[in-house]
Amino acid sequence: MFNLLLDAAGATTGGFLGGLGIWGTIAYIVIFGVFIYFVIIRPQKKEQKKVSAMLSSMEVGDSVVTTSGFYGVIIDISEEDVIVEFGSNKNCRIPMKKTAIAQIEKAE
Fold first, then answer.
1. Which of 54, 61, 83, 93 could link 76 by a cystine bridge, Cβ 3.0 to 4.6 Å?
2. Cα(68)–Cα(97) distance, rounded to whole angstroms?
3. 8 Å CB contact between 73 and 84
4. What local confidence, expressed as pLDDT, does residue 20 receive?
5. At 85, phi and psi to the nearest 5?
6. Element (H, E) at 73
7. Phi, then psi, of 10 in degrees rounded to 5
């Protein structure tokens, strides 16, 4: 009877992760977590910091490109919004969120 139990237990330890034991499985999970952090999470956080620094350095008179591809000049800045003037027509002023700015070129 005891031999049957040992044979059944031995048959279930085969397979992909079966021969590694619990510590091998935990090591695979930790390695996978570290891989995900360095490939996905860390670059995304770096990009968010870069965009945040760019948006906080905006000043009146800077030339901008919106996420829609429009070129304009900032004429007013508030807490969350900016007013951008598009083209040579001084009447084309559109308020938009700061997050709608894709690129900034500093005024000279």
1. 83
2. 12
3. yes
4. 73
5. -100, 125
6. strand 71-77
7. -70, -30
- The residue type at 22: I
Q: Scanning the structure block, which residue is given the tokens 């807490």?
A: 79
Rounded to two decimals, the pTM is 0.62
Task: Write down how long the chain is.
Answer: 108
The owner of tokens 């997050």 is 99
* pLDDT-based confidence at residue 107 (cuts at 50, 70, 90): confident
Instruction: With beta carbons less than 8 A apart as the criterion, state whether 86 and 96 touch.
Output: no
Q: How far apart are CA 60 and CA 34, in angstroms?
A: 42
Alpha helix positions (H), the chain? 2-12, 21-36, 42-56
CATH of domain 59-105: 2.30.30
- Predicted confidence (pLDDT) per residue in 34-72, tens digit: 999 999 999 999 999 999 999 999 999 999 999 999 999
For residue 15, what are its two tokens?
């397979």
